[in-house]
Amino acid sequence: MHPVVIEVTERLRQRSRATRTAYLQQMADAAARPQGRRSLPCGNLAHGLAACQPADKDRLRMMDEVNVAMVTAYNDMLSAHQPYETFPEQLRHALRGIGATGQVAGGVPAMCDGVTQGEPGMELSLASRDVIAMGTAIALSHNLFDGALCLGVCDKIVPGLLMGALRFGHLPVLFVPAGPMSSGLENSAKAEIRQQFAEGKVSREELLAAEMQAYHGPGTCTFYGTANTNQMLLEAMGLQLPGASFVHPHSPLRAALTEHAAHQVVRLARNGTGHLSAILDERALINALVMLLATGGSTNLTLHLIAIGQCAGLQLSWEDMDQLSACVPGLAMIYPNGTADINQFQAAGGTAWLFRQLLDAGLLHADVDTVAGPGLARYTQEPFLDEGRLRWRDGPQQSLDQSILRSHGNPFSQDGGLRLVQGNLGRGIIKVSSVKPEHWQVTAPCRIFTSQQDFVAAFKAGELEQDLVAVLRFQGPTANGMPELHKLTPYLGLLQDRGFRVALVTDGRMSGASGKVPAVIHLCPEACAGGPLARLRDGDMVSLDAASGQLEVAVEPVQWLAREPVQAPESVRTGWGRELFAFMRGAVSSAEQGASCFTAGLAAADGRTPDET
C-alpha cells in the first residue's frame, strides 16, 4: 500500500473512532431485533401483503424467505432514470425465480440538474439530496425487508439513496445502475456551440439542435459529470456489481446484470453477509476518494463523500482529499478533462483497467468486503454474455487508447488535480485537471455579483473585457441552497479565449463538468454567514495560485477589519417551491461539512453536541 493512503486512512479511522463506534452499535442493535416480517403483528403484516400476487403472499408468509425492498428514483423526465420504468417487474421476476420476493418500498424524487441549470429550481438541487435520504429512510422503515436494491444514477440521487440506506446498514444493499446513453454530438463540439451562442454567433434554434444531438436518448449523459462519477465511485465502494456502471440501457447485458443484482442481494441476505455498514467502512470511503482523484471526477463529490461518511460515522475532511490528491496520479481523460466520452472510456478499458492500475500501484485497499464478495480484485473483471449467460472475465491488460486511459507508470498527471485552497478569503476547493497550467495563477481586480443573471448582463454590456476575478457571493447552502453556477461557464471561457486572465471565486458550486477556467468553489465560511467574501469590494486585487493552494485579497488588515460585511440581498426565496425549503437552509451545515441538514441529528445520535460536529 502507498504510505500516504495508509496514513490518510488511519487518520480518518482515528478521527472517527467515537462516531464510527456509535454508528456500528446502532446497526448491531438493529440487527439484534427480529428482521423483516418476523415480529410484525398480523394486522401490520396484512397491510404490507394486501396488494401482492397470491403466490407472493404465500411466499411472504414463510418468514424465513427473503423479501427485498426496491427504492426507485424512476421518472421519465430524467433520461438516466427513464429505463427504471421496467426494472421493478424485471427484478420481481428474477426474485421469484429463486424463491424470494420483492416490493417497491418507496419512490424518491429525482430532479435533473441539466434541466434546472440557471433556473430557480436549481436552488432545490442540493437540498434534494437530503430529501432523497429521508425518502429512502421512510421506504425502509416498514421493517418488511431483508435486503434492499437502490435504483438511482444521477447527481444528488445516488448520494441521497446511500445516505438514507446507511441508517439501515444492518441490511445488505445493492445499487442497480441503468447505464449511459449512446454517444451523440461530441462534448467538445457542444461546448463550442454554447460559446458561439454566448457571443451571438449562432441562433437559439441552432443551439437547441446541437443540444438535442448531445442529449438524444435514454441513459446517463455521456460526459464525466456527477452522474457518471457516482457510478465509478459506487464500484470503488463495492456497492455495485463489477463493471456494471457503463453498460447501455435496454441491452441484453444490462438485463442480465439487473437480474444478477436481484439474485446477489438474496444470496447475501440468506448468508447473513454483505451488510452495508460492514462494506462502507473507512477503507471503502478512501477507495472512493482515490477513484474520484484518479479520474478527475465531479467536484460535487467533495460535498457528497463527506455527507455520506457522516451517515456511516466517518469524518472525512478536505485535508484528506488534498493530501491524497498529491499522490494519486491522473489516469483517465474523459470530458471535460479530455475529449472522450464515457462510452469511449469504457471501450478503452473502463473500470476494470482503472481498478487493476490503482491496485497495482497500492492506491486502493484490496482487502475490503463488497457486494460481489471479499476483495476489490473482483472489480478488475468485466461482465459479458456467454451464450446468453452472464459471466465475468479479466479486463484488458493494456489500455486500448492511450489518449483516454494510461497506466500508473505513465499517467496524464502526477496528481489528482484537486486542491484545498486557503487564504484570507476563506477555504475552498479547486479542480485543475481540466485547466491548463498557464491558467493556474491569476491576479486581477475583482468584480462582485450576487446572481448569474447579473454576470451575464455585465458580459453582454461589454463590462468584463479585462483581466478579472469574478466573485459570485451569497450562493452558499444557507443563502440559497448552493445552486450550480453552470450558466457562467461559456462566458468565462470566452473571456479566457480572448486572452484575458480570468478566474471564478464563489461560495457556490460549479457543474460536475467544471471546465477550463480556474474556479475556487465551496468557499467557507460563506458570505451569508459573515464569511470574508462579504467584506470584499469591487476592484479589490485578488490573487489565486492554484499550484500552491493560495487565495488572497490585497487589502491592509486594519482596513479589512474596519469594513462592515455586506448583508445578503433582501430577496424572499419563494416560487418554484423554494419557500418549502427555508427550514433546510436554516439547518444546513457548511460546504466543508458536506452541506447537510443531518449534521446536528447525527451528532446527537452518537452522543456529541452540535458544537462538536
Structure, described:
- The protein has 613 residues and is α/β, with parallel strands linked by helices.
- It folds into three domains: 3-182 and 217-394, no CATH class; 418-562, IlvD/EDD C-terminal domain-like (Glucose Oxidase, domain 1); 578-612, no CATH class.
- The chain is 38% helix and 14% strand.
- The protein contains 24 helices and 16 strands.
- The strands form four sheets. An eight-stranded mixed sheet has the order 9-10-14-13-12-11-15-16. Strands 2-1-3-4 form a four-stranded parallel sheet, sandwiched between helices. A two-stranded antiparallel ribbon has the order 5-6.
- Helix 5 (87-96) links the parallel strand 1 and strand 2.
- Helix 8 (157-166) runs parallel beside helix 15.
- The longest helix is centred in the middle third of the chain and has 20 residues, at 252-271.
- It is globular, with a radius of gyration of 24 Å.
- The protein starts with a helix and ends in an 8-residue tail after the last helix.
Itemize the secondary structure elements and their pairings.
Elements: H1 3-15, H2 17-32, H3 42-49, H4 54-60, E1 67-72, H5 87-96, E2 101-107, H6 113-116, H7 125-140, E3 147-151, H8 157-166, E4 173-175, H9 187-198, H10 204-214, H11 226-236, H12 252-271, H13 276-279, H14 282-295, H15 301-311, H16 318-325, H17 342-347, H18 350-360, E5 369-370, E6 373-374, E7 381-386, E8 389-394, E9 418-423, E10 426-431, E11 441-449, H19 452-460, E12 468-472, H20 477-480, H21 489-497, E13 502-506, E14 519-524, E15 541-545, E16 550-553, H22 557-562, H23 582-587, H24 599-605
Parallel strand pairs: 1-2, 1-3, 3-4, 11-12, 12-13, 13-14
Antiparallel strand pairs: 5-6, 7-8, 9-10, 10-14, 11-15, 15-16
Helix pairs in contact: 5-12, 7-8, 8-15, 9-10, 9-21, 11-14
